[in-house]
Design a protein that fits this description.
Elements: H1 16-26, E1 30-31, H2 43-55, H3 67-81, H4 87-90, E2 91-95, H5 96-108, E3 114-119, H6 125-131, E4 135-140, H7 150-156, E5 161-167, H8 179-192, E6 195-199, E7 225-230, H9 231-234, E8 242-246, H10 249-259, H11 268-278, H12 282-306, E9 318-322, H13 332-343, E10 345-346, E11 348-349, E12 365-369, H14 374-388
Parallel strand pairs: 1-10, 3-4, 3-5, 5-6, 6-7
Antiparallel strand pairs: 2-8, 7-8, 9-12, 11-12
C-alpha cells in the first residue's frame, strides 16, 4: 500500500490554473485563464537585476530582506497611503505574495482557531489555513456585484475566530471593496479582537478613477492588519516571485519566523531591482494602470459582442462572466473545457475558487484574464464572437 500522505495537500487536485494552461497548450488555445502578462515589465528593471547579478551580492540575503527593498516598501506605504512604517520591524520580503499569505496563516493560526474567508477566494488560502490546523469558515460574496453580506459575516464570527482574510482588488471577480465594507470589517475586527490578513497584490491596478484604500488606514487598524503586496503584479514580472508584507512588529515577527522555514531568504538581485521599481515616479504608475484599463476595455467589448452581459472589472487582471448569458446550461468547468476545445480560448471556472465540497458554490461563472497584448485580446474576442455568434 502507498504511504498515507497529508490530505491538506496530497488530497487536493492540481491547481486549476495549471490544468487550464495545459489544456490551452494541448489545443493551441489563447490562454486567458492563467493570470500572467504576455510581455515583461520595464526594461530598466531587467537591466538593474542583470547588473546586480554581475556586481553582486549573490550570497544569502538577510532573512527579512535587503534593507534597500524594505526601506522602499516603507517609503511606498508613506507615499501612496500616508502610512508611517518602521522598515526595520514592520516589513518582510517573501517568495512572492503567496509565501506572505502562507507565512501569515501558518504564523498566526493554530489548531482550534477559525479563519473567515470570503468566497470566491484565491486557491492557496484554504489549504494554508488547514495546514495550520485551523478551520476555514466561508462567507459567500453575493453575485453579481460580489459584495459582503453583513448578516452572513456577523453570523460567521465565533469565539474561535482568529482572523479574516480580505482581498481587494479581488481575484477572481475584479471588484474593489467599498468604503462601507471597510468600515464594517474594521468594526467587526475591533469588536472581536481579530487579525486582518489583507491581500492587496493588485493595489496599483484599479480603474476608472477609483483609488485603493487599505484597511490598515482606518482607525485602530494599523495594529491589526498585515498588508501584502506583489512586485510581480506591480511590475509585470510574475516569474520574479517577490512579495512583501507590512504590519505591526509582533505580526511581522511571527511571519518572519515562519518564513525562515519556508524560503529563508530571497534572491538579492531581484530585491535590488524591485526597490528601484518602487521608487518609479507617478508617470509609471499612471501609465501602467491606463494601459491595463485599455486592455480591459478591449476584452469587455469582445465579450459583449460574443453575447455576455457584463460590467467592466474595477481592478485586477480579470473579468467575470455569467455563462448563462450565451445560453449555456451546463456547469462552469464543462463550459471552460468546451471553450478551449471548440472556441480556442481558455478561461477558468469560478467554482474552483470555493471549497471543493461547498454545496452553495455557483456553477455559472467563468473568469477571463485581460493582461495580454491588444492583438491577442482582439483575436480571442473574434474567436468567441464566432463561436457564440
Amino acid at each position: 500500500m502507498p504511504p498515507q500522505l497529508n490530505d491538506v495537500f496530497a488530497g487536493r487536485p492540481t491547481t486549476i490554473f495549471a490544468v487550464m494552461s495545459a489544456l490551452a497548450n494541448e489545443h493551441d488555445a489563447i490562454n486567458l485563464g492563467q493570470g500572467f502578462p504576455d510581455r515583461d515589465g520595464p526594461d530598466s528593471l531587467l537591466k538593474v537585476a542583470a547588473e546586480a547579478i554581475l556586481s553582486g551580492p549573490n550570497q544569502y540575503a538577510p532573512t527579512m530582506g535587503l534593507p534597500v527593498l524594505r526601506q522602499a516598501v516603507a517609503s511606498a506605504n508613506r507615499r501612496f497611503y500616508n502610512l508611517e512604517i518602521d522598515w526595520e520591524t514592520q516589513t518582510l520580503v517573501t517568495a512572492g505574495a503567496a509565501e506572505s499569505l502562507a507565512a501569515a496563516f501558518l504564523g498566526f493560526l493554530q489548531p482550534g482557531d477559525e479563519a473567515i474567508l470570503f468566497a470566491p477566494f484565491y486557491d492557496s488560502y484554504a489549504p494554508m489555513v488547514e495546514a495550520a490546523g485551523a478551520t476555514p469558515v466561508v462567507v459567500h460574496l453575493t453575485p453579481p456585484d460580489w459584495r459582503i453580506d453583513e448578516k452572513k459575516l456577523r453570523a460567521a464570527v465565533t469565539p474561535r475566530t482568529k482572523l479574516i482574510a480580505i482581498n481587494s482588488p479581488h481575484n477572481p471577480t475584479g471588484q474593489v471593496i467599498t468604503d462601507n465594507e471597510l468600515v464594517l470589517l474594521a468594526e467587526i475586527i475591533r469588536a472581536n479582537d481579530l487579525i486582518a490578513v489583507c491581500d492587496e497584490v493588485y493595489e496599483h491596478l484599479i480603474f476608472d478613477g477609483l483609488a485603493h484604500k487599505p484597511l490598515m488606514t482606518l482607525p485602530d487598524m494599523a495594529q491589526r492588519c498585515v498588508r501584502i503586496g506583489s512586485a510581480g503584479k506591480t511590475f509585470s514580472m510574475t516569474g520574479w516571485r517577490i512579495g512583501y508584507a507590512t504590519g505591526p512588529a509582533p505580526l511581522i515577527d511571527a511571519m518572519a519566523k515562519t518564513h525562515q522555514f519556508l524560503s529563508y531568504t530571497i534572491q538579492p538581485h531581484l530585491q535590488i531591482a524591485v526597490a528601484e521599481g518602487l521608487g518609479f515616479d507617478d508617470r509609471y504608475y499612471k501609465d501602467f494602470t491606463a494601459d491595463m484599463q485599455a486592455k480591459r476595455d478591449i476584452l469587455v467589448d469582445g465579450l459583449r459582442a460574443a453575447g455576455f452581459n457584463l460590467a467592466p472589472a474595477q481592478g485586477t487582471y480579470f473579468l467575470t462572466v455569467d455563462i448563462r448569458d450565451v445560453g449555456y446550461s451546463g456547469d462552469d468547468m464543462s463550459f471552460c473545457r468546451e471553450l478551449i476545445e471548440k472556441a480556442g480560448v481558455a478561461a477558468v471556472p469560478i467554482s474552483s475558487f470555493y471549497m471543493a465540497d461547498d454545496p452553495d458554490a455557483p456553477k455559472n461563472f467563468a473568469r477571463f484574464c485581460f493582461c495580454k497584448q491588444p492583438e491577442v485580446l482582439q483575436e480571442a474576442s473574434a474567436r468567441l464572437k464566432k463561436y457564440f455568434g
